[in-house]
Write a structure and sequence with these properties.
With 346 residues, this protein is mostly beta strands. It has helices at 138-141, 197-208, 309-321, and strands at residues 38-49, 65-73, 89-96, 103-112, 116-122, 127-133, 162-164, 174-181, 191-194, 213-218, 233-238, 247-251, 257-265, 293-297, 302-307, 340-343. A hairpin with a 4-residue loop joins strand 14 (293-297) and strand 15. The longest helix has 13 residues, at 309-321.
Amino acid sequence: VVAENTAGQRSPPAMLALDVRPEVFPPLGEEMAPGAPQWAEEPVLILGPTSEGGPHFGDYDPGTWLQALLLWHDSGTEKGAAPALASAIDVVCHFRRPGSSDPHEVVLAKRVASSRLQVALPAHVPMSLRLVVHNETASRDTNVLDGETPRPPAPKVQSEPLLQMLSESSEQLRPVWEIWSRGSPDGQPPRWRPLPEELQNVLEAMWLEGQRKVAFEVQQPASGEATNILTGGRYELVFGDDRQVQHSLRRAGSQWRSNARRVVLDANGEDASAPMVAVEDQCVVCMERRRTHAFMHQETGDGHLAVCGGCAEAYRIEAVVGGAPRHVRLCPMCRRTFTSVQRIYQ
């Protein structure tokens, strides 16, 4: 910076340092904050099975993949108008592998500037898809200088969850959360009964996204209305691991408790939690899913088709970690050492 007086005399140059922090200045109007994107009225178009070697996500292979087109638009887009996006979108998928109690998260695509995405989705895998407005400043905020106080992360701007679970024939499957009813107003014997329809999507999304529990409130039905399975009050559903710990529902302020479960139904209301697999095609470890991976033996040049994708991944992890028990380091079919576990396409 150089100062000059009216006579034209200039001062020696000096350095002016400015410490400008964006959080000090408020946004110029609400239009500066991006609105949450919304899924289209028909958000998913199934295009058919994917070809072998197509783009898959999450380093997971359930055996059958379906090519799908996801569609969305900005929150401000009027019905019937051409979809437009004011911000780049990250497409995030929360899912749970069949037979596993752990939730998983994978980013299907980053910085999507259009309002559509073609992606491969796995069959018989429950998914919660969300559109998240890409935060361009998130990576820059991680580079904090010495002595500076890091800013808290900005809250995510994201869509409502889009729940998807597809059969191998592209049919939409319907997860249903039920509780064990010991008695009912209609005098029926104890049985599994579904929770109210308005709770189903919330419970499914929270379970898929790794929440340990979810609280909700049930309004007391007015006189003349159909009696709900739950009386009015506040409830808490604690998610189990689907193996040793069962899901449970309790009512706040009382001793009332009930077991809960999650079932998957097809369009006809029949159980569709897992495809039928012939005994000779079942994984020799879990005895549930289809064999898709083989243990390869270098000394003989052959292999044994023995396990599903989930169990094959467990073998790979043990091999990487090291120090695994002897039975995990051997082929489960011939009890010989193996060099690799490979996906076999039939």
